[in-house]
Amino acid sequence: MAEIRLDPMEMLLRLTGDLSDVRGRVQDLEDQGVAATLESLDTKVGGLKETLAAVVEAIQQLQAEPEEEEEEEPDWPGTTPNWTDDLDQDQARELWDGLTEWCQNKLWPIYVQDVWKPCWYRHMRLRVELTWVWRAYEWSYEKGKGVPPTRVAEWHVRWVKHIEAVLKEELKECGLPRDGLPRPKHRVPLPQPPTEEDETPAPPPFRVTDFVDPTFFEWVEDNIRKRRPAENSEDEKAG
């Protein structure tokens, strides 16, 4: 096949024409404001990059420092302690102190003094019943704001009547001989009548209307002493 050779002059003319065409196209783009548009887009892209960088940094901070979840307020004042569990000495003392304080200051003087007897603490079933009624009272009265009045109503209408019945049943064999009990389970001493020799006899050490009898503290300490030592007490001895 014969080789086609272009004349240099012809090549120059073609190149000149192509260059002229390119210049024309560039001029058209400039006339249409493409350069300004591109510059505007570049500015906007730069702003978006800065915004995106700020968002990424904020997300990283949230991941590094997780938000603390608000603890929901429990709907019950914790688990009711059980006297039959394996309580250590510290747990038993805390339970005795809490129950005694509540009974002496709330339950006994306001609600059940008429059916109360000072040997109440010797009765295991009664201690168990009194403990959960104590917790129910706290749930009704001592949970702060927003507690519905129905809780208090239920405590008075339902649980006070229940604990009254338990007290009567559990303590029915305790008290004074004149109550029809020839041999009371836990005897309350009768007052001594005056005599010619002693016109003003000393009153008995306690009465059936007292909160506790004189052996209360000794009995409680003995109950605590019989339980296993607290773990921290063992650690202190070892140290």
Please name the defining characteristics of this protein.
57% helix; mainly alpha; 239 residues; rod-shaped
Approximate helicity band: 55-70%
Listing every helix as H and every strand as E from the N terminus to the C terminus, the arrangement reads HHHHHHH
Please report the total strand number as a whole number: 0
Looking at how many chains there are and whether they match, the oligomeric state comes to: single chain
What structural class do you assign from the helix and strand content?
mainly alpha
Largest beta-sheet details? none
Q: What count of helical segments does DSSP give?
A: 7
Q: Mean pLDDT score, rounded?
A: 80
Runs in which pLDDT lies below 50 for 5 or more consecutive residues are: none
For the record, give the distance between the C-alpha atoms at the N and C termini, rounded to a whole number.
110 Å
Gross geometry: rod-shaped
